[in-house]
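Encode chain A's predicted structure.
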Amino acid sequence: MVRVLKGLFPGITVPLRHRNNWELLVAVILSAQATDKKVNEVTDRLFQKYKTLSDYTNADRAAFEQDIKELGLYRSKALHILATARIIQQDYGGELPRTMDEMIRLPGIGRKSANVILGKAYGVVEGIAVDTHVRRFALRFDLADATDPSRIERDLMELLPQEEWFGFSYRLIMYGRQICPARRHDCRGHPLTAMYPPAAGRWVSAAQAGRRRNRTGAVVK
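Encoded structure for chain A:
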């Protein structure tokens, strides 16, 4: 799978537009339950208004909420971003932390987001970002034995050498977006399914797959 994905997507890019590490963090928080396209539309304006970290620490929360209101969960996202800005300025001298333990203590940052930020900002790879695409492919291709993202991450980390972690996640996400979307379709001729034909007939949701596995221990097809 790694070889096929590298052939399809030789380069690795973060689709969220940003000019520095802080803007990367902001964009990642904003991307929860939102498309990259919509996030980029919002941040194109946002990053022109808020140009420095101090602009965020001094921002009015109500006004900031309005600036990102087009995105879902905008109130909690505003709270997390502005709180994180103060922490970054006060505790880290304006620079993002460089470890997973520090990163996941920031408001609004979980392991998936931390993996994205650390990998892109510093080349620090401590895990695998498990989004909805990575999750569904892990289940369809029998790469994981549980539906919980943290369990899936551990299973993938055991299967893959560490130097492949960052690239595998991004390429699988691109594969899901450009080649094999989540909606039901005929994917028997797709590159990865051709390698593992049983995956072609697996359209059960991740939640249903988890319930079936828990009851029977069998793979859902």
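Residues 208-221 have pLDDT under 50 and may be disordered.
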